[in-house]
Amino acid sequence: MDGSDRTRRRAARRRRDDLVGWLLVLPAAAFYGVFVLRPLAITAQYSLYEWNGVGPSTPVGLDNYVRVVTDPTLYGSLLNAVTLILFFSGVPVLLGLVTAATIRRIATSRLATVARTVVFLPQVIPLVAAGITWSWLLSSTGAVNQLLRAVGLGSVARAWLGDFDWALPAVGVIGAWVLLGLCTLLLLSGMTKIDTSLYEAARIDGAGPVREFLAVTVPGVRQEIAVCVTVTVIAALASFDIVYISTQGGPGGQTLVPGLQIYYLAFASREIGLASALAVVLVALVLLCVLPVQYLVRKGDS
Fold it and tell me: Per residue, what are the HEC states of the chain?
């Protein structure tokens, strides 16, 4: 067998392997195209029309997008979602780092198992149940206000979810409580992969717990932090359940988020085109927030 025959056989084997690979990917790609890409394309198409979902549609060009960026109610819902990122993403990731580092330090004790269970508990509770429970806790006669009055802070007590200034942060607290367990477990799993010799070397160099945490733990879970940020940012921008159950967007639209606004526009006001335009803008906002995080992580790995 000469060299040209071996080359042809390698090329034929490579083509066969490529074909098998494409055939294996084909079902998932077809599913993704039908149930993800096609609805996105149809939504983008609807956003260029004025349509009530039943009668004839009228092409309006980019008018729906102009309304999204000029109507205070519509772009206000986008700003509310961006604000919720601080609560849904910032708080769970930071607290999750501290909680996971603490649990890792007591990993051999039974307290660690109890702590993991308690922290992860909100993840197994349905969001509807969590929203109802927190609505009771944050009501004017709820446990939070009773506790404040018991410690002499009755002047601070209020109907948190009905207050124009505090409703959005109160919703953010609910989201942070729900997502803390997920972030903690993700970060804890990442910390178990860190080489213990790095901690020993840090202690030999005189590093205290804080220095050890910042110099060893945080860099070691960089990828897990990126996953947490990605998941929680998407949860903040696409939030619906918690807001619908706890405030339904009130008071006065102070907690209105894009997901809820799209629902109201599509199924209450019958403005399918405007709802589609807001959905397209929301998808663009999600990609704008998530893609830089993934880019920075991959750049750091390379």
Answer: CCHHHHHHHHHHHHHHHHHHHHHHHHHHHHHHHHHHHHHHHHHHHHCCEECCCCCCCEECCCHHHHHHHHCHHHHHHHHHHHHHHHHHHHHHHHHHHHHHHHHHHCCCCHHHHHHHHHHHHHHHCCHHHHHHHHHHHCCCCCHHHHHHHHCCCCCCCCCHHHCCCCHHHHHHHHHHHHHHHHHHHHHHHHHCCCCHHHHHHHHHCCCCHHHHHHHHHHHHCHHHHHHHHHHHHHHHHCCCHHHHHHCCCCCCCCCCCHHHHHHHHHHCCCCHHHHHHHHHHHHHHHHHHHHHHHHHHHHHHC
